[in-house]
Each structure stands twice: as C-alpha cells, then as structure tokens.
Write a structure and sequence with these properties.
It contains four helices and no strands. By secondary structure, it is an all-alpha fold. Helix 3 crosses helix 4.
C-alpha cells in the first residue's frame, strides 16, 4: 500500500500499513476436546512411554502443551 501524501507517519499510520494477520497454516480452531479424547487422538502418533509421562505431568497440573513439550524432551516421540 503506497502513501500519496508525504507528511511524516504517525504511529496509527504504521498500523494501517501492517499486513493482515494470517490465521496460520492450521486453519480455524475447532471446539476443544475433553482431555481424555485429546490424549487418545494424540496417542496415535506417540509411544506409550510418552503418553504415560504426559498423563503423569497433567495430573500434576501441567497443561497439555506443557506436558507434551516436557515429554518430547525427556522420552522423545
């Protein structure tokens, strides 16, 4: 988008020139699954050891993503 006037840009003008934010490559969000259903779907791609550690971490209070990252570091896929 080119500007026609030559006056100095104000901070609001920079916002107008920013490209639109994309929704990412995953598409629109789907409704959240229950934790157990989410774990069942996740288990298709991961080992029993990974899943056991994730369940343990989630019982201790970690979120799904936090537990997944920790399990990836500790036992891998």
């Amino acid at each position: 988008m080119k500007r026609k006037d030559k006056k100095p840009m104000m901070s609001q003008d920079y916002l107008d020139l920013a490209p639109p934010k994309s929704k990412g490559k995953r598409g629109p969000k789907v409704p959240a699954l229950s934790k157990e259903k989410q774990l069942e779907a996740h288990a298709e791609h991961h080992t029993k050891k990974h899943m056991a550690l994730m369940r343990k971490l989630m019982k201790e209070g970690k979120t799904f993503d936090e537990a997944h990252k920790a399990a990836q570091k500790k036992v891998g896929k």
